Amino acid sequence: MIDRKLHAAYAACAAITRNEAKNFYFAFITLPKRKRYAIYAIYTFCRAADAIADGIANGIVSGIVSGNTTTIESTLSEKIAALTRLRARLTAAAAGKPQRLTDRALSDTIVRFAVDPHDLARVIDGMEMDLTVSRYATFADLRYYCHLVAGTVGFSVLPILAHCRGRPLSQEARKFGDALGLGLQLANIVRDIAEDIARDRIYLPQEDLVRFGVTEKMLRNGEMNKEVHALLSFEIERARQYMTEGGSLLDHLPRHARSCPMLLISLYSRILDRIEARGCDVFSSRILLSTSEKLILMLRTWIRALLR
């Protein structure tokens, strides 16, 4: 018998993911339907946490699919309170008592695929960190932040991707998943420097800025001098190294689930290629891939995953 409320919950998560996920959505649609919809539920929860941290008011925050995204002014206390409520929703969903429509899909996913709610709680920890930390002194500091906002998301998705294996994920698989999340997050950080600094956030480690002789003023003014170019080239190579390490995750996944992480690596590698082709200029306009490019990469990656 079809659970209509559960079906509606997954449909709502699918709509949110389709509207918001951009690059990730193309990776998700390569998966079998049951796994794909489970990841939609995970994405919707994580996107809600991210939306609160960024002061975004839309259907994601309320758990209801709505119209256009708009930015609102929120105080720190209001955001912390909203994340606290989201944490309570996670606890309720994990206990089989979902409070919102989309939480019903999350609750089902947690049970069906043995997703650890603690990993999702750590995502909220990362968003709380984003509210009070706008600079990172060292790469170790940044890596910890990336682990919270990206690595733990990977930990939540891995049980879904590897489900047909019928055994718990190894620590090695989790290590590669964390590396992949770090690499993707670093690629995002490089691409979004201008957008982030407009919010007075600089994710690039301060020690790297000092090492290459780059000042915050250079980044704020969008200067493309040799110092900035050297810094961004270094960060791009670092992102690539972690994505390459994370690619070893594929050996821990069933064949039908490999195309998802493979496509993410391909998409973000292409973005880094595009940044380099523009002389590392991430200030004049945001680097984007067209829908046709994503579809071509998706087809090629799907074939590679089957032949791997």
Describe this structure in words.
- The chain is mainly alpha-helical.
- It has 2 domains: 1-115, Farnesyl Diphosphate Synthase (Orthogonal Bundle), CATH 1.10.600.10; 133-308, Farnesyl Diphosphate Synthase, CATH 1.10.600.
- 70% of the residues lie in helices and 1% in strands.
- It is built from 15 helices and 2 strands.
- It has helices spanning 4-20, 23-28, 33-54, 59-62, 76-94, 101-113, 117-132, 139-161, 171-191, 193-198, 206-212, 216-221, 226-246, 259-277, 291-307; strands spanning 56-57, 70-71.
- A two-stranded antiparallel sheet has the order 1-2.
- Helix 5 (76-94) packs across helix 6.
- The longest helix has 23 residues, at 139-161.
- The two termini are 38 Å apart.
Task: Please tag this protein with its features.
2 domains; 15 helices; 308 residues; Farnesyl Diphosphate Synthase
A few lines on this structure:
The protein is an all-alpha fold and 308 residues long. The protein is 70% helix and 1% strand.
Helix percentage: over 70%
Q: What is the CATH T-level topology of the largest domain?
A: Farnesyl Diphosphate Synthase
Outline: globular
* Major sheet characteristics: 2 strands, antiparallel
How far is the N terminus from the C terminus?
38 Å
For the secondary structure, the number of strands is 2
Radius of gyration, rounded?
19 Å
Q: Structural class, from helix and strand content?
A: mainly alpha
What is the CATH C level class of the largest domain, in words? Mainly Alpha
Low-confidence region ranges: 57-73
Number of DSSP helices? 15
Q: Which CATH architecture of the largest domain?
A: Orthogonal Bundle
Query: What is the element string, with H for helices and E for strands?
Result: HHHEHEHHHHHHHHHHH
Which superfamily, in CATH terms, is the homologous superfamily of the largest domain?
Farnesyl Diphosphate Synthase
Q: What's the domain count? A: 2
The largest beta-sheet arranges its strands as 1-2
DSSP strand content: under 5%
